[in-house]
Amino acid sequence: MISTFPHSKPHSPTWQPFRAPSHASLRRQNHRVPADLLTRRELNRATLERQLLLRRSDLPVLDAVEHLVGLQAQEPQDPYTALWSRLDGFRPEELSNLLERREVVRSALMRSTIHLVSGEDCLLLRPLMQPVLDAELARYRDLRGVDVDAVLAFGRKWLEERPLNGTELRAALAERFPGHDAADLAYACRNLIPLVQVPPRGLWKRSGQVRTTPAESWLGRPVVAGPSLGDVVLRYFAVFGPAAVADVAAWSRLTGLREVVERLRPRLRSFRDERGRELFDLPDALRPDPETPAPVRFLPEYDNVLLSFADRGRFLSVQRRTPLSAVEGRIMGTVLHDGFLFGVWQLQRDRESGTATVLVSHVERLTRRAEQSVGVEGRRFLRFVADDASSHDLRFVALA
After folding, report:
1. Is 16 exposed, middle or buried (0-12, 13-18, 19+ CB in 10 A)?
2. What is the distance between the alpha carbons of residues 3 and 373, in angstroms, rounded to a whole number?
3. What is the model's pTM?
4. Residues 335 and 353: beta-carbon distance below 8 Å
5. pLDDT in tens, 193-217
6. What's the CA gap between 300 and 359, in Å, rounded?
């Protein structure tokens, strides 16, 4: 069996986890407050502030992961870029150490995609996201005639013995349940057993095959019984708001959220965006002046700040909507300038010279100010992401 050990969590002496204000206090502060209009730029600055992108934070890494309600981690190295752009003095070894100490884990959660979350949040969020995983399983796999309970009991036993990769799990299931598609059975285990991906997968500049094991065995305690979806929705508004119900659904892929938000309405403040959509937020949440300067940020290929809204207009320029499909090769991330999408970045390496180059393909006009500020941050980013290179370079490519 996999060994387990107690969970310990360091905390900053000045940081406290998000706690929703009481129903009574919010009702006193916010009862019948009219819906105010928020411009696109106001929404942009509010979300950047909550996402630690308006200024780098001194939060400890674990606290930042919990503050953000996890990081999209489909690409194993993405959380490192995401945190480098958010935390002052971020050292990637800190996150790798948290993975090895089982204080953060990689698991299929929101949208049924892999997220890096704290161990505590994994056990909290996993049962809440079960409907999303159920729907995906039903959509892509045919389990008619399968004794699912028997498959899950067998799969859990094998995965508790030692973390297995997909080939090993499918082989064990094929031998035990002949006549059924082993890939379907393995997918049932993936979606119906709370699993985590174990290191070295996800370590800084180290990776490996995806090997999974039950979260409860890895973390040494069970998933949360009866978790509150309402509390998690409040956490969403705290770090993504102001936002619409459809935005919460885009972040989670859960359905029936209108009813949840309506129950929370007395604890929320209502706004309207420029399209007339109703937005919700915590009454005392930070909403900075829209003219607050927003520094350049290099984000990973998948970052929840761009994936967690049904309407991404708060980050996209209305003047230019050049298709990013014009970029040749794999896009490795996006670049924000003045808070809005400026372009995308790619990392290129020249083996002969040892030079690492960040190529910034931009959809916005390259003003002198943009060239200077993106260049400065891009070279800082290069020293982080390609610290082993003998030299660094940055080039701009205009997308017509």
Report:
1. exposed
2. 49
3. 0.89
4. no
5. 999 999 999 999 987 899 999 999 9
6. 14
Structure token pair of residue 232:
């998690």
- Euclidean distance between CA atoms 59 and 275, whole angstroms: 35
- Kindly state the tokens that stand for 158: 């094998």
How far is it, in rounded angstroms, from Cα 191 to Cα 188? 5
347 by DSSP, 3-state: which?
Answer: strand
d(CA 376, CA 295): 11
Domain ranges of the chain: 33-219, 234-281, 316-398
Whole-angstrom Cα distance, residue 241 to residue 289? 15
CA-closest candidate to residue 124, choices 15, 1, 221, 265: 221
pLDDT single digits (tens) 9-32: 333 333 444 444 444 443 434 444
Task: Output 56-59 pairs: Cβ under 8 A, ≥24 positions apart.
Answer: 56/85, 56/86, 56/87, 56/88, 57/86, 57/87, 57/88, 58/12, 58/87, 58/88, 58/89, 59/12, 59/15, 59/87
Burial tier of 97 (Cβ tally within 10 Å: 0-12, 13-18, 19+) = middle
